[in-house]
Every structure is written in structure tokens, then in C-alpha cells.
Write a structure and sequence with these properties.
With 219 residues, this protein is an all-alpha fold. It is built from ten helices and no strands. The protein has one domain. The longest helix is centred in the last third of the chain and has 32 residues.
Length: 219
């Protein structure tokens, strides 16, 4: 029976093989049998870990998430004050987390470019992958100490999914040595998202105040 380290190593080999094949032959021509051969794993082992091509994309997303979360400290006590968190705005924390995620995706960028081009013609694969990217973005919010499980968290997750998709287009074409274009795009998108979230909160607050019951006069 494989231990966790062996399984993680196999997942990395499979994902790397899939992205290499996608970069060379195109994502639409990257079949699971070809991935198994390129990764040097039995077809049954691939089936147990990645039964569909959408699961291959989810596996890549999971590896990027793991790279980010491996650097995160233990979850802090929510009742304990955190001076560092108070000094650093949530947007800055999220910027750092998301850039670490793009750094983790960098070795697979050529394959991802092919996936992005071809996935438009594979709506079922894209649909199957959608819950996985939403889960990933929820964990990125947690890593930035923003709670996606609090009221309104689902809107935050959906917003970050949209931010990730827009910045991904810049990332795939970014030829700067330090991903400067990606950083600029991410900063702009997060600022836009922050403004959207503030406007949404103001709207919800106004609605709540308008629906509050009025106490009947005493007497």
C-alpha cells in the first residue's frame, strides 16, 4: 500500500506528464492512456487517482494549493489578537497568497496555455472542473485569513474565481523574469474586487436597515 509521500510523488509525475503532453500535442489530444505511459504508471493506478481529464486539472490545482498551504503557519486562535494581520490589509495578504500560487503553476505554464485554449471547446470538462477551482479559491482565502465560510463567503469565492481566470490570461503570456505583468494584473483585479465587495456590503446594509421592524409606540 502506498504511503502519502509515494502518492504525492506519483501525482506530480502524472500531472507533469499531462502538462508536457498538452504543451506538445494540445490538450484535446492528451488522452489518459497517453498520460499513463508518459508518467510510467499502470493504467489502473491512473484510474484510481485521476479517473477523468477534469481530475487531471483538479490534480494540478491541488498541487498548487498544497505548495501555498505548506508555507502557512497553524491556524491562529480566532479570539487572539493578531497585530501583524491588523497591520496588513486583507487585499495585500490575498495578493501574496495568489502570487505564490502562480509561482507554483509556473513549471506547468506551457501546458496550461494549451488547456486554456482547448477547454473552450470542452464544456463538459470545464463544468466538471468548476467545483475544484472554487474549492481551491476558498482555500486561498483561508490562507489569506479571510473566512469563506462566513456569511457572504460564497460571493467572495465566486469573485476570486473570476479574478483568477482574468489574471491567468496575463500569467500565460507574461514573459517578464519576475512575473511583473502578472503582479500588476493581480493587483488591479484585487483592487477592483475590493471596491465591488465594499459596494455589495453597503447595499446589503441598506437593505437590512430598510427591512428592520419598527417598534409599535407604547401606550
Amino acid at each position: 500500500m502506498q504511503d502519502a509521500e509515494d502518492t504525492e510523488d506519483m501525482d506530480r509525475r502524472i500531472v507533469a506528464a499531462a502538462m508536457d503532453l498538452a504543451a506538445t500535442h494540445g490538450w484535446r489530444r492528451t488522452g489518459l492512456a497517453e498520460v499513463a505511459r508518459a508518467a510510467g504508471v499502470p493504467l489502473g493506478a491512473l484510474y484510481r487517482r485521476f479517473p477523468t481529464r477534469a481530475h487531471l486539472l483538479a490534480g494540478l490545482s491541488r498541487l498548487a494549493d498544497a505548495a501555498v498551504l505548506a508555507d502557512e503557519p497553524a491556524a491562529p486562535d480566532p479570539d487572539a489578537p493578531d497585530p501583524e494581520a491588523e497591520e496588513e490589509p486583507p487585499r495585500d495578504r490575498l495578493f501574496d497568497v495568489m502570487m505564490r500560487r502562480f509561482d507554483a503553476l509556473l513549471p506547468y505554464r506551457d501546458g496550461l496555455a494549451s488547456v486554456t485554449r482547448d477547454l473552450r471547446r470542452e464544456p463538459l470538462t470545464a463544468l466538471a472542473f468548476a467545483p475544484h477551482i472554487a474549492r481551491s479559491m476558498a482555500w486561498m482565502l483561508r490562507a489569506a485569513r479571510i473566512d469563506p465560510d462566513a456569511p457572504g463567503g460564497s460571493a467572495l469565492v465566486a469573485g476570486l474565481v473570476a479574478v483568477h481566470a482574468r489574471v491567468m490570461r496575463t500569467f500565460l503570456a507574461d514573459d517578464t523574469a519576475d512575473l511583473a505583468r502578472t503582479m500588476a494584473a493581480l493587483d488591479a483585479e484585487l483592487r477592483r474586487g475590493e471596491s465591488w465587495w465594499a459596494a455589495l456590503r453597503r447595499r446589503d446594509s441598506r437593505r437590512a436597515s430598510q427591512t428592520e421592524p419598527v417598534d409599535a409606540p407604547a401606550g
